[in-house]
Amino acid sequence: MTDTQGATIPSPAPAPEREPLLKVTGLTRHFPIRGGLLRRQTGAVRAVDGIDFTVNAGETLGVVGESGCGKSTMGRLITRLDEPTGGKIQFEGTDITHLGVGAMRPLRRDIQMIFQDPYSSLNPRHTVGTIVSAPFRLQGVQPEGGVKKAVQDLLELCGLSPEHYNRYPHEFSGGQRQRIGIARALALKPKMIVADEPVSALDVSIQAQVVNLLDDLQQELGLTYLIIAHDLSVVRHVSDRVAVMYLGKIVEIADRDSLYRSPMHPYTNALMSAVPVPDPRRRQSGGRERILLKGDVPSPINPPSGCRFRTRCWKAQDVCASREPLLTALETGHQVACHFPERSEGNDGHSPENAPENQGS
Amino acid sequence: MTDLQKTPADSAPAPLGDPFLSVRDLRIHFDTDDGLVRSVDGVSFDLHKGRTLGIVGESGSGKSVTSLGIMGLHRSKRARISGEILLDGEDLIAAGPDRVRQLRGRELAMIFQDPLTAMHPYYTVGAQIIEAYRVHHPKATKKEARARAVEMLDRVGIPQPDRRLDDYPHQFSGGMRQRAMIAMALVNDPSLLIADEPTTALDVTVQAQILDLIRDLQEEFGSAVIIITHDLGVVAELADDILVMYGGKCVERGPAASLFDAPEHPYTWGLLGSMPRLDRELQERLVPVKGTPPSLINVPSGCAFHPRCPYAALTGGRSTSEVPVLTEAAPGHHAACHLAADERHRIFTEEIAPRL
Amino acid sequence: MFAYIIRRIFAAAALLLVVSAVTFAIFFLLPRFAGETADQLAAQYIGKNPSPEAIAAVKKNLGFEQPLYTQYWHFLKGLVSGAEYKFGPEPATCHVPCFGYSFKNHLEVWPEMTSRIPVTISLAIGAAVLWLVSGITTGVISALKPRSVFDRLSMGVALAGVSLPVFFTGALLLTVFSYEWPILDNLHYVDFTEDPLMWARNLILPWISLAFLYSALYARLTRAGMLETMSEDYIRTARAKGLVERKVVVKHGLRSALTPIVTIFGMDLGLLLGGALITEQVFSLNGVGQFAVQAINDNDLPKVLGVTLLAAFFIVVCNLVVDLLYALVDPRVRLS
């Protein structure tokens, strides 16, 4: 718990000289598509198609995007539940990109995962005690004071009662099950937790409980989080930095405040304006400009040339089809992959509200 | 696309005339091996044509059971339904099942949460829409029905509708499927449309498209709409009036603006406080509602919310013994809470509002 | 879709090849492993008390001296181009497709076997129609009124049907309807082309006893499938359209519920076409099943080999048909 020095305070602006806990470069995952008589590979679903980012110790990186953008695949690659097609994943300086099951084992203690569905991710035939203590058995760890004591401490840490030790998952509500999943993930004192949609299956009033719990645990244990979610408001609440994904690429990555205050990529803008806000006055006063994207996300089998968002973008020009915009830092800690980013120099920033009319979809 | 023109209807008095849909003391209970499940336990509301009612609640609050009850889709012998559902003056609970079936799809239509499972995988989208039309237009020829289906697909924004008509549901994207589902529901010009979590399975940008579409269509057809959701953001986008359900009962009901500005019930405060909001400054911490939603077999005595209510102690023990009645707290705004209205207003302005 | 069909046909052909190889190995390789000499093996092809000359002839004809793959190759060649055997006074011709030659009876296996096929097909198809109609109807009614008197009663009968063996129900039917009250006496197979009425009359008892077993199974399967389908979201959608319940059940429910049953039906039918051993035995029907039983009793290996391959062929073909039907029924298979 204490071996990640200086990690207890989440720092929104990480010191650049420090070695990041996780470093991902050019990560790709292509799922082959087979077709024809002989089932030869005829194409590939480019689920993750070359992404770079780092996560520093003690911080939370939020990854947002719509279904099919590759965010969950990315999470599975980092936790090495899936084999990357290309690129490099470094954890604490060690290359873990193609480590086998055996070589990955010691690292599994450091990287844990929390899943979306608290119903299917817990074995219904095992007691809570068995579930939470499974990591000890798998790793052959003998915790101080015995397994039972350790599990009960973990349950308490996650807001459950130690008496729940002998109960079965079906006796718990969704929120409590998610707590059990979190307790299991924490058993081996990991350094990093990858959480894929940790609260999206929960009721609103319960979501807040789990979000707060994740917050507290980070403060207390100095954890590093990679939180994958589709809900922009939840991501804003939990993250220090946020990456926005579209069709297998990161289109924007920035400090939380910078991203939410002044998003630069048109897609981020559209995404944010689409979130329904619990304020009926807004829709009447016309106080907000909503960007309605037309059409659907293109297929990741055949992504558009150049910028992948151009087919739905109101700012798209010829250059967007011919040249792929690279992720570049326009401000400190704010990287965008766009030829015509919002609110940047050399661009008078066509305001998006009159945009939907001239879309060429 | 952007909804700027709509006149603020929320603060206007309810339209004159009888409501199109009037639900009175609706109770839907289920006999199960574990005991009697009181899924809906005395819900009443009115809905006029051209207006939208939002029903908000968490899982197990009874919101979906209510909507299926209005549609007459509880077929199990174990369902016990009482109360009145008056559709244009006709009581649907007293009416025979065949009469309700005739109204279903014609006067009452429904769209469901997951358009992938809600459409039959073996029939084309067109065949399913055509079927919906021909049930209530038996004299229509196949050609007429097909033309009508193309027209509807076009209306809900599906490109090349005459070609897409012959596609199967799995060939549509999620958003397109929900559009097709809406086309199917609206093919007979229903007077009441019930949308049960219509955007929960969709991405935000697609959700925005669908909400926009529902709003446009309502303005065009002037039908009454009930939107059922757990998402306060979604109701705020669409609803004129809002009904908050908890443990099978209505705990608060009122015009949308007033409900969001001055919510009366501690549960509504809890809901508003526990959701992170993009339109507000970032809070250090969310304020969750403690505990978990109640079991509908063992609903807590008195006020069902009392085990989770931070203010239960202020009621002098009434919250555990007495079921609170829905009373008018502000014009058109009702709440079922034992706290005195003044006390509630004080707590809200002093403690709750600053945190929201 | 076209690629799918071609691929399926190729897969079926490959499967048949594998089955033939395995069968071949079982009949020719395993005895060698068990320590049998070529002479002993050859002796089995002739019958009791074979003469040394006969053994030598069989050995030569079947090439037991040659390596196994050559033997297999000859076997495959025989299937497509026939074979000549020099055995006894005159040469014996085994015509295409040569499934083997019975040296015991001086007969080709294939024509003898095929002459039994009409009997087996009549038995299997008739029973199949009977059990499909009764099983599915019972299953659907049970599913629509779960826990009703009909449901409990029919599921009880179904349980009995699954547990009672055919030799019991068959013998019971025979005793009652052929001997006690001779309504259907003197049962023997009459070809359909000869006298359809007699064909049906003489087969009705075998049909019933065979169908009883299967319809019980199918009633249970249909009931389970139907119960599951009727709780699907799209059934709720169909009701929300205002469809009458009959249409909801038949058009929306039954079609999905029956799809998995098609698969099982294909397997069952394929299995039966390879010979309904017990039923044929009980009712003395001279079908493929009887043929197999006789071949085994006589220790006539070419016949056993031939009938095994025939049974495998029926199963593979029925499975192929089922796969194609499935694609026809479910657009998700067809269009993906």
From TrEMBL, chain A:
One of its GO terms (molecular function) is ATP binding. One of its GO terms (biological process) is peptide transport. It comes from the Bacteria. Residues 22-272 form the ABC transporter domain. Residues 340-351 have a biased composition (Basic and acidic residues). PROSITE patterns: ABC_TRANSPORTER_1, ABC_TRANSPORTER_2. SMART domains: AAA. The keyword Cell division does not apply. InterPro entries: AAA+_ATPase, ABC_transp_ATP-bind, ABC_transporter-like_ATP-bd, ABC_transporter-like_CS, Oligopep_ABC_C, P-loop_NTPase. Residues 340-361 are annotated as: Disordered. Pfam families: ABC_tran, oligo_HPY. Keywords: ATP-binding, Nucleotide-binding, Transport. Belongs to the ABC transporter superfamily. This is Dipeptide/oligopeptide/nickel ABC transporter ATP-binding protein. The lineage of its organism: Bacteria, Bacillati, Actinomycetota, Actinomycetes, Kitasatosporales.
UniProtKB/TrEMBL annotation, chain B:
The keyword NAD does not apply. Residues 23-272 form the ABC transporter domain. GO terms for molecular function: ATP binding; ATP hydrolysis activity. It comes from the Bacteria. Keywords: ATP-binding, Cell membrane, Membrane, Nucleotide-binding, Transport. CDD domains: ABC_NikE_OppD_transporters. GO terms for biological process: peptide transport. SUPFAM superfamilies: P-loop containing nucleoside triphosphate hydrolases. It is a peripheral membrane protein. GO terms for cellular component: plasma membrane. The keyword Transferase does not apply. SMART domains: AAA (SM00382). InterPro entries: AAA+_ATPase, ABC_Ni/Peptide_Import, ABC_transporter-like_ATP-bd, ABC_transporter-like_CS, Oligopep_ABC_C, P-loop_NTPase. It is found in: Cell membrane. Belongs to the ABC transporter superfamily. NCBIfam families: oligo_HPY (TIGR01727). This is Dipeptide/oligopeptide/nickel ABC transporter ATP-binding protein. It comes from Kitasatospora aureofaciens.
UniProtKB/TrEMBL annotation, chain C:
It is found in: Cell membrane. InterPro entries: BPD_transp_1_N, MetI-like, MetI-like_sf. Its main location: membrane. Keywords: Cell membrane, Membrane, Transmembrane, Transmembrane helix, Transport. It comes from the Bacteria. GO terms for cellular component: plasma membrane. It is a multi-pass membrane protein. Gene3D superfamilies: MetI-like. Residues 117-326 form the ABC transmembrane type-1 domain. The chain crosses the membrane at residues 9-30, 117-144, 156-179, 199-221, 257-278, 304-329. GO terms for biological process: transmembrane transport. Belongs to the binding-protein-dependent transport system permease family. PANTHER family: INNER MEMBRANE ABC TRANSPORTER, OLIGOPEPTIDE TRANSPORT SYSTEM PERMEASE PROTEIN APPB. This is ABC transporter permease. It comes from Kitasatospora aureofaciens (Streptomyces aureofaciens).
